[in-house]
């Protein structure tokens, strides 16, 4: 993650927190990728529809968890930094993102 969320201001290198977040997100995305392949196989093998639907929901839920992790990291790092620099427009950006997540 080489964005404002991953950079230590003075050293301009990833912070320990951002490295942990990135690893967690990548691990989760790898599992989700496997779930999606599994869903594809289930459909190819004519698996019972309800079972496929349950797996799709599990994948959707896992993606939602990734969104929450990234939003939390963004607020704790990027947003705080931008507010400290007087960039108040970031508040509207975050509110817009939260509205999208809660639809």
UniProtKB/TrEMBL annotation:
Q: Where is this region: Disordered?
A: 1-21
In the record, biological process GO terms are: negative regulation of DNA-templated transcription
Gene3D superfamilies per UniProt: Metal-sensitive repressor, helix protomer
Q: Name one GO molecular function term.
A: DNA binding
Recorded hits in Pfam families, A to Z, give: Trns_repr_metal (PF02583)
Protein name in the entry: Copper-sensing transcriptional repressor CsoR
User: What species does this protein belong to?
Assistant: Alkaliphilus oremlandii (strain OhILAs)
